[in-house]
Amino acid sequence: MIRLSRRAALSLPALLPTAAIAETWRPGQPVRIIVPAAPGGTTDIMARLLGQYLQSRWGTPVVVDNRSGAGGTIGTMEAVRATPDGRTMLMGNIGPQAIAYSLFRNLQYRPDSLVAVANVIRGPNVLVVNPSVPAQTVPEFVAWLKREDGRAAYGTSGLGQSPHLSAVWFTQLTETKAEAVHFRGAGPMLIDLVGGNVQFAFDNLTSSMEHIRAGRLRALGVTSADRSPELPDLPAIRETMPALAPYDVSTWFGLFMPTGVPADAVNGVNAEVQTMLGLPETRTRFAQMGGVPAPGSPEDFANFVRSEIQKWGVVIRREGLQMDAT
Predict the structure, then answer these.
(1) Beta carbons of 146 and 179 less than 8 angstroms apart
(2) Which pLDDT score, from 0 to 100, does residue 13 have?
(3) Shortest CA distance to 1 belongs to which of 83, 86, 80, 94?
(4) Which of 90, 176, 194, 289 is at a distance of 20 to 30 A from 39, taking alpha carbons?
(5) Domain spans of the chain, in order of start
(6) What are the pLDDT digits (tens) for 19-47?
(7) Using CA atoms, how far apart are residues 64 and 286, in angstroms rounded to an integer?
(8) How far is Cα 51 from Cα 7, in angstroms, rounded to an integer?
């Protein structure tokens, strides 16, 4: 385990003009992007899209290396242990890079083990209910939950994941209760939700979209601060009730490198990502996935990650959730 001072947490080298850095820094050797998840998910898709782009820019092979397991912590440790030369990156996400620090008792890395390089994409979760639930709006849903008084059951794609904690924070803010039923991924959870074995869920918009459009599930609101361009008539949950005004949840996926990486590598990779995010084809592809580009400097991303760690720490401690990293 790499131990550094708290002061170095998500530390950032001084930024140089991105255009100059993009012109001067190149990896010179093959690059590896570690994905702390199985192939086929959003983390993997984003790593492969970015890897193809960087390979075309640098003329250097960029290999995606899937290291799944333990909620993303196994792949993260692989990145933390890598040589900090700019040729090993981690396509991180909200789970292992924000939620995990409060959720796991025995985590072997800390925020100061990684340098935030560039956020890439963000997107909302969505509150969906089985059509049998007698609620057309979020206030009606909250009233229904209170009448049910803990008897309602909701599905999650995994304990401690973003969709689960979206529900936890929602019930905290609305002072409601419901029973969590944890599944191994969104696929089996959605089968039981459509079948009525659980009554509602918070799910990634991407995986629920087909069921929403087909009328198999009723969407009541998105978890992000703003409405989704994909469903512009669906409200953001935070706009539906005063108690939910602080509510803002977005899944996100971004690049990290092991602490100690040179400044020119951090800024050079960030500059390349910003160029990719500005392409019209990138915006189109992200929209198909229910997300939007998340541009910004390394410092912007580091500040964002710190705020996410703090936010989810409060929610997790209030709920009393704790797990062992395996």
Answers:
(1) no
(2) 42
(3) 80
(4) 194
(5) 9-123+250-319, 124-244
(6) 444 457 899 999 999 998 878 778 888 99
(7) 19
(8) 31
Q: List, for the chain, all residue ranges whose pLDDT scores fall below the cut of 50.
A: 1-22
**What is d(CA 90, CA 36) in angstroms, rounded to the nearest whole number?**
8
Q: In angstroms, rounded to a whole number, what is the distance separating the alpha carbons of residues 292 and 287?
A: 6
Q: Which class for 151: exposed (0-12), middle (13-18), buried (19 or more C-beta within 10 A)? A: exposed
**Environment class of residue 280 by beta-carbon count within 10 Å: exposed (0-12), middle (13-18) or buried (19+)?**
exposed
What residue has token string 């947490």?
A: 9
Q: Say if 9-123+250-319 and 124-244 have the same CATH topology.
A: yes
pLDDT at 56 (0 to 100): 96
How is 153-200 classified by DSSP, letter by letter? EEEESSTTSHHHHHHHHHHHHHT---EEEE-SSHHHHHHHHHTTSS-E
End-to-end CA distance of the chain: 15
As a whole number of angstroms, the longest Cα–Cα distance in the chain is: 63
Q: What is the pLDDT of residues 217-240, one digit of tens each?
A: 999 999 999 998 888 999 999 999
Q: CATH classification of 9-123+250-319 is 1.25.40.10, yes or no?
A: no
Identify the DSSP state of 15: P
What type of residue is 163? P
Single-letter amino acid, residue 234: L
Burial 24-41 (b: 16+ CB within 10 A, else e): ebbbeeebbbbbbbeeeb
**Do residues 173 and 244 make contact, with C-beta atoms less than 8 angstroms apart?**
yes
Selection from 71, 67, 64 nearest residue 47 by Cα: 64
